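SAMPLE LOG
Freezer: B-3
Tube label: C17
Construct: single chain, 204 aa
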Amino acid sequence: MIGRLSGILIQKQPPLLMIDVHGVGYEVQAPMSTFYNLPELDKSVVLLTHMVVREDAQLLYGFYCESERRLFKSLIKVNGVGPKLALTILSGISADEFVQVVKNNDESGLIRLPGIGKKTAQRLIVEMKDRLDDWQGEDEAGLDKTTTASDNLISGQDIIKEATSALIALGYKPVEASKMISKLDKQNQSSESLIKQALKNTVR
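STRUCTURE (predicted):
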């Protein structure tokens, strides 16, 4: 199993990124919480990873810190919660916030996330509560703290398109994603910052 990748970031289009490790390009899916901390393209990056092996595919998921990876691994053990929904949860709410929502039996805090209905929210609270009794949050683990998220020099329209596409990939309908982005101030913003603001607005 692959538990960690260290290499050069050569592609990032949420939720997919690619890391070149000694000439081999690893495709990795990651939550937006990790994308916010990625360096510029062609810069060094380190990610903690979790590999999911299926009959038809071998999928690699990457995380900025151990707490995110640990929560992801717990989430995919819940009945009806696959890796895609787990990424959506981690993209829309921080690991520590998720723990607090579960401990407070706050169904509405989960239902605001795309792909989570009342029954799934109830199941998450019931099945995750015992697993989170000894939860201890962590600030960082994988990435170099000196790196910062940044877009290449691309047009404003391309940034809006990237942000909208990322929201759709996270489970929002195209009309919803466009509406979420349209409400934001897009002046001098990166696609990651637009996505972050849009997701924050949905959980207020």
